[in-house]
Amino acid sequence: MRRNMKKWLFAALTVAVLVVSACAKAPYTGRNQFIMMDSQQEMALGASEAQKVIKSEQIDTTSDYARAVTRVGRRIAAVAGHPEYKWEFHTVKKDVPNAFCLPGGKIFVYTGLFEAAKDDAQLAAVIGHEVGHAIARHGAERYSTQVVAQLGQLGTAIAVGSQTSPEVAQAAVAAYGIGVGVGILLPYSRTHEYEADRIGLILMAKAGYNPEAALTFWQNMAAKGGKKPPEFLSTHPADENRIKAIRQLLPEAKGYYRPASS
Ligand SMILES: [Zn+2]
């Protein structure tokens, strides 16, 4: 009994130390974050996951769409304030209105998105959102939450006694290792989506795009109806609520507006 208590205390302390040593703040919003992955690990993970996507999807490098993604992506990246990121903006030839980002600044836009993104400013709303996920390190944050959940399981297993199931122990060990891709492509939480919208509006304004174009983009998306893309949908409020939220965020974003220097 006493020995179990000691083990339990040890596990709890380990988690506590990890939590304390892993506090971060999201850019622009100042939200407190728990991230226990350093930037180098994060970038290595993003780079290797990006290679997998590039191998498995049809990447478009020559169309007008691809050129627009590169053009807008570079402008947003230039104001994102992360020179250490190796920004990549890829276009995937697929008729799905979607986009996603991997840790460390690897952004993918599907050609199907151009049915709703009618010009550079509207595309900037999407890319700004994805860059927002990247600089707020949402992937690493989600990963960290999962690791702690698994450590928690392990701690509980030790506490309740003796037989830590091999599966739980293995999961905890695996979660420590980088490269297992734990949850990297799971949907973001609503908190993350809202925050990415907010940061995205600010970034597009800083890059010289009128943030109101985000409203037009989401109205176009809403008008399309039908099945919504996974990244934008699953945990996200309906288009209507999103449009309402964006409207409220516009004054803040406009304060960052700088006309683009040609
Ligand atoms: Zn998102």
UniProtKB/TrEMBL annotation:
Residues 1-26 form the signal peptide. GO terms for molecular function: metal ion binding; metalloendopeptidase activity. GO terms for biological process: proteolysis involved in protein catabolic process. Residues 67-248 form the Peptidase M48 domain. Its cofactor is Zn(2+). The lineage of its organism: Bacteria, Pseudomonadati, Thermodesulfobacteriota, Desulfovibrionia, Desulfovibrionales. The keyword Amino-acid biosynthesis does not apply. GO terms for cellular component: membrane. PROSITE patterns: PROKAR_LIPOPROTEIN. This is Peptidase M48 Ste24p.
